[in-house]
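Standup, Tuesday
Yesterday: got the pipeline producing C-alpha cells again.
Today: sanity-check two examples.
Blockers: none.

Example 1:
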Amino acid sequence: MMSQKSLSTPAVSELVLAVLDDLKAQSTTRLDVRHLTSMTDEMVIASGRSDRHVRAIAQALLERCKAAGCEPIGVEGLESGEWVLVDLGDVVAHIMLPHVRDFYSLEKLWGIAPRQDDAGD
C-alpha cells in the first residue's frame, strides 16, 4: 500500500474537488477543520442525485485517488449509497443524498463557514 502522504493536502483536496466536479456532484463545500480537530485538515461535503449517483461519485473518487498514489485509509457506506465517507487522511470526503445531508447538517455541526474558494454547484 502506498503512503497517504504521497500527495500534499492541497493536492488531495484539489483532486477530490476535480472528481466531484467531473461526476457532477451538487452543492460541494470544502471546510477547513484544522483548528477544530487533529484527525483531518479538510472536509469536503457534496450531494449526489440518487444512491446510484452517490456510489458512482465515491467509486470514481477511490479510483482516481488510488491512481494518483493516495490510498484511502477507509471507506464507509458504499453499499447503501446514502452517505459515503472516504477518508484520505488529511482530507475526508462525505458524499450524501440531499435529505441525508439536510438531516445531519455537517456544515452546521462543525459550526464553521465554507472556504472562500468553495467549489459551489
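Example 2:
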Amino acid sequence: MIRQNTCGAIIKQLHDELEKNANNVLRPQGLTMAQIGILLVFKDTPGNQCSLKELEQILHVAQSTAAGIVSRLEQKGLVEGFGDPEDKRIKMVRITSAGEECCRRAEASMAEAEKKLLSGLTETERNIFSCLLMKVRDSFQ
C-alpha cells in the first residue's frame, strides 16, 4: 500500500485500520460496525427508541440500508420493531436488553482500540488531537 501524507489520506488510513480491527472483534459475535452503530444510536434517544426514518437521518443512510440493518438486528434479538401507537404507518425500533449488553461490550472494545490508537501521545497531545479533530469535523456542519 502506498502511504500518502495528506491529512485526508491519513484520516482514511486510521479509519480503515480501526474499522478492520473492530470488524475482526465483532465477527465472532456475528456483528458489523454498521450494526453496532445503530445499537449505539439508541443510547442517545428518548426511551431508547426511535423511528426507522429518524435512524436514516441520524446515520445519513438510505431507507433500504437502515431497514436492512434493523432487520438483521431484529433476527438476532438485539432490537425490536413495532408500529407507532399514534400512526401505524411509522415503524419504530427499540433496543432490547440483549442489544444493550452488546453495546456495553462494544463500548469496552472501542475504548481499548482508542487507547491503543492514542498510546503514542501524551495526555496533553491527546487533548490537543481530540480538540483539533472536533474542530475539523465541525467545519463540515
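Quick observation on example 2: The beta strands are 49-51, 79-83, 91-95. The longest helix spans residues 97-117.
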